[in-house]
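Margin note from the TA: students keep mixing up input and output lines. Inputs are the sequences; the output is the structure of the whole complex. Example:
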Amino acid sequence: MAESTVIKNQLPLHGLMAEFDSPEHLVDAARRAFAAGYRRMDAYSPFPVDGLADAIGFHHTRVPLIVLIGGILGCVGGFFLQYWVAVIDYPINIGGRPLNSWPSFIPVTFELTILIASLFAFFGVLALNGLPMPYHPVFNVERFELASRNRFFLCIEAVDPRFDLDATRRFLEEIGSLGTYAVEP
Amino acid sequence: MDPKQPEEIAGEGLPLLEPGHTFGSITDKISSIVLTGRTPRFWYVCFGVGFIFVLVLLFCIAAVVSIGIGLFGVMIPVAWGFAIVNFVWWIGIGHAGTLISAILLLLRQKWRQSINRFAEAMTLFAVACAGIFPLIHLGRPWFAYWLFPYPSTMGIQPQFRSPLVWDVFAVSTYFTVSLLFWFLGLIPDLATLRDRARGRVPRFIYGMLAMGWRGSAQHWHRYESAYLLLAGLATPLVVSVHTVVSFDFAVALVPGWHSTIFPPYFVAGAIYSGFAMVLTIAIPLRRLYGLEDFITLRHLKNMGIVMLATGMIVAYGYLMETFMAWYSGDIFEKYMMMNRMFGPYGWMYWLLILFNILIPQLLWFRSLHTNELVLFAIAICVNIGMWLERYVIIVVSLHRDFMPSAWGMYSGTIFDYGVLAGTLGLFLALLFLFIRILPMISIFEMRELVHKEEGRSA
């Protein structure tokens, strides 16, 4: 079996990719692949499909935590920036009013909370998704350009312990693949 | 079939999307506007007109920066003139974009999906236009960075108790967050353009911008989470921005400014003028580009209804201002209101009541909700009316405040009008540039809509 997963340039295949024509078929196929014991796989769709991430066994994302951390940093940092400016670095006594006039620091604290949380959300999602990514093997499949149009793909990766070129190909055809392609590395 | 969704009843059978569209047809239709080799003639006309006014803008800015702020009509007592009026007007216009993209997303209103992209772009361009005004109004714009806290050799720091400093933070945060939100929404569509583009150069540029997006289920999962969180962050932000803008006035003691109704009344006014601008753009665009299938009469109707609702809040604001002027018993407040209605600028007040309150009442008639010409005319009226409102609030309040010996008159100079026209041109030019090089309707959200609508009819 080892020879057949190796192609001419001597690098092992990235995996096998199956094509589907509707999100329902893709979710169904992903569920069955998961049930068959495949874990190292990914599904590709032209728009977010409900339940697809669950179907491939991906349930949790750390994005909300990252945004929360950003928000807390922005809030605390924003307030202490103003505190430091108004009380420590550049105190001005105006009619004996308190230097730490915190109510008037709230608007900027609020804005900075939103700003830093949003920056964390944006860059956090990019970082978790590993973007920018200049090269990825799935783009070697010619049909894959339809993944951003109207086709749905399921890719079982060769690193999965249950991956076997022939058996996996047969499995994908059984679960309704319209076309199964080897993904070159 | 489940019972009718509330929004279906509100839509009275008008479709969100004309039937018969597939994932493929939507993708091809929207991306072909960008990827076509042939630029339509009206594009050159619209962009060209915009570009001429960009040159006017550059000329006026160059003149004001090199000769001085005296070229504007501002003088004591009216030290805030066109520049601040235009700033508030443009910022307000931007608010509809965030409302459509963020608040309607949180409220799960599906009719946002074909209008959110260009409404967000409109936000960015409107905020960019708005940002020009306070900058040149500083007089010495090259010192604008003094507004940010940084370890300066002068040993001074900004005054964080001042609403004007809050404004700097609010507007720059607003611009940044709107940009992030807009770009995040664009990434999957940029990947679509990368896969559709046939030339090497567009393929390379869209490819770089798409950053290797491949529509993986794990990516979509994180993406949706981040998108929703950004919408949740943008929602209080958009309310805070115009609130802070209104603080610029409400915190001062000038009669006509010093009022607690300002924040809600400004926010409603902002959304009002923003929806008017979205309609002003959407009605001609859907015709020019043949997008009637995607931006349907249902969208126009819903925007008209939002305009009517926010317009009524604005009307309540006017009513309360007048009532409080009388109820306060303060002679300066009372005089301010009499002067606003019957003073030298009285015609402006009545014109704004006509444009902002009376004409939009036509939207109560159901038959007019789907009449594009009427909606367009009302939207133009509201755009003008909201500009007049800011003029009345700012200039008319300042020109006669307390001491009659300190009263004065104000009028804009040719440079004031030049910069206003210039920013309109900049807005037009940026908008058409955007339409030419980026998809003006979110393709992936439209595919989602097709999928959901299919599921409902099946």
